[in-house]
Amino acid sequence: MEPLQDEDEQPLGLLLFAVDVTGQEEARQRAHELALETRRLDARLRVLTETAPQITFSIDSEGRFEYVSPQWYYFTGQPPTTDLNAIWPLLIHPDDRLRVLYQSEAARTQGIGWSFEYRLRRHDGQYRWLLSRALPELHAPDKPVFWHGAVTEIHDQRELAEALRRGEAELRFLADSIAQLIWTASAEGFIDYYNRHTAEYTGRTPEELGPTGWVGLLDTSEQATAARRWVQCVASGADYEGLYRMRRHDGVYRWHIIRARRLTDTRGLRWFGTCTDVDDQHRLREVLQSQYDELARTNRDLDTFVYTASHDLKQPLFNLRGLFDELRRSATFDDPEQKVILDMVDEALGQLDGTLQELAATVQDQRELSAPTEALDLSSIVEEILLGLRTQVQETEATIDIQTEAAPALVYGRANLRSVLHNLLSNALKFAHPERAPHIVLVSSLSPSGQPQLTLQDNGVGMKLPNGTTPAFHLFERQHPRVPGAGVGLYLVQRILDSHGGHLEVSSTLGEGTTFTVYWFE
Where are the transmembrane segments (predicted)? Predict the structure, then answer.
């Protein structure tokens, strides 16, 4: 408002002017609100940047620092009053300094961002790997004025990546040094790596072999089966294994064992496979199997011959004994040693009869070495055997202690177990000391390794043993010729134990007794 006056400067009235300033007022209020919001966002941004585990910074187009977060001071140990532009380059590792300065200068000159790694000295003097990234802030006309970025410590990740790289390089070097075909495949089953020996063995490069190269090297009659099995294993994750003939670089097919296993780790799923040349072993196994079959056939023929011979000789023996009995009844001799001669002939016939029976029993026992196993109660088997030896036990007035509580059961062939126990018990009774009644102690227990074992101790005449506790007993070998026998029992015991992976240990003192320790399994 302004006064309106006349020529004499007398008031005539008021002039009122009204201007619409709504737009300007709204703009002012909006500008005020934006300023408040900017300060709020700036405060929030500072909190975020100063609490994040990163160093944030801003630099101008000349490369001078406008801002750096407090994390930089914590990391470097520099005081807040330090000159960033002067000290920062000096903290960079000497080997990285020129590269970092060049890359940052080139990015500012071109008006683009950057991303590079370098080592910066920490407050404890140790250089740590950092990742520096920055983007330009563009102003009209699209000219960058500032660069804003962050520095992240990646030392542990880089060390881990380097360790993995070294480990992978060492593993590849090791794989290339092994004289075996080694390969890896993707989760889908396509081969992505062959070691050097594969190329040397097959005469083909990895590119020529391709993602399914090993299948194409197999004999044509085996390729479909091997490929089908491989697809099934890839789908199910089961281990792959097979024996196939694979072509060498000279065209010769050789037997290989092909194995592959799946590995899942942080890098994903992969297959690792090997092709092992076992042609020599395979052919040797075939030769050995053929020789084994031939020896087994010969052994069966020998057993049959011995069994038949012992059986066929029994009739002539019966005839000789009948003739001898008839001569003893009807013939007379004028010889003062008649009785001695007749007793010697009778004893010889008895020994021949016993030998034939032992031979037949030996063949029968050897045929039963491969009899099926079953869970057996030791005390029951021992009682059955002692029932058969009742006459000898009564005649010698023997005392037998049986202790099987510690290991009462044994998984073994019934006939083999009976043969072992019968021979040991009958020998303990047969070789009793003439001046005292037999005392036999049979104990079943567990060895320190948890395997069942049996100990049989007697107080008989004992035996003379070579050095060591595991003597070798031979067929028809006897230590006490005056005691009737054929020298077959301990040989059979040793054969049975050896065939089942066990062994027999013996300790003995002449005139005092013998202790047998039966290890059923090693």
Answer: none
